[in-house]
Structure formats: structure tokens, C-alpha cells
Amino acid sequence: xxxxTPPxxTPPxxTPPTEIPAGEARRRLxxxxxxxxxxxxxxxWADGHAPGALHRPLSSLDPAEFAGxxxxxxxxxxxxxxxxxxxxxxxxxxxxxxxxxxxxxxxxGGALVRDDGSPGxxxx
Length: 124
What we know:
The chain has 4 helices and 5 strands. The protein is α/β, with parallel strands linked by helices. A 5-stranded parallel β-sheet has the order 1-5-4-2-3. Helix 2 links the parallel strand 2 and strand 3. The longest helix has 12 residues. The radius of gyration is 18 Å and the shape is globular.
């Protein structure tokens, strides 16, 4: 009499989201291949954001809004952007996180602006 052992159950893979450097993100955005989604809170956004970015705080990010689109997510340093990219990817959205967030974007020569078009900053 043999007993079969059920296959071991493994938790779903928690693959980290794809990260892309600022130069590649800018190339995708400039080519119209992706949209940049800034997931910081309103007061952070008001201090400065990448031109053309969409503001969708992580707390209210709706993957359905981005179905069928390629998304690059960002925040100040990359943590929240990574979580947003993972959530979008889990929902079937093609998503990557901007490695190093807007700090890396700015260090790589990317502009930061306020809503009125004046120069922005990450630290107010």
C-alpha cells in the first residue's frame, strides 16, 4: 500500500517589479511607449514632479485605469514606485518602476516642475 504525498504547496512568487534607469524611462516616455505615474502624496507632488507625469497616490492607485497601457511608476526614492509597479503587474498591467525614483531622475538631468510650470524640487 503506497500513499501519495500531495505536491508541496508553495506561496505565489513574489518577483520584484522590473526597475528601469532614468534614461530608459525617459526614452520610453519620449517615444510614447509608456506613461509616467507618480504615486507620491499631494504635498510631495506639489513641490515638484516630472513634466507630463500623472499623479495617482499609491493609496488610491486603480490598476483598471491603466489596462492596456505601459506604465513607469515613480516616487521620491523608488520604494513606493516599486510597490505600485508590483500591484499594477499583479493586475495584468505592463509596469516598471523608475530605479531610484525622482531622485535618480533629477540626478540624470530630468526636469522637475510645479503645477504652475515653475521649477520644482523634491524637498520643498
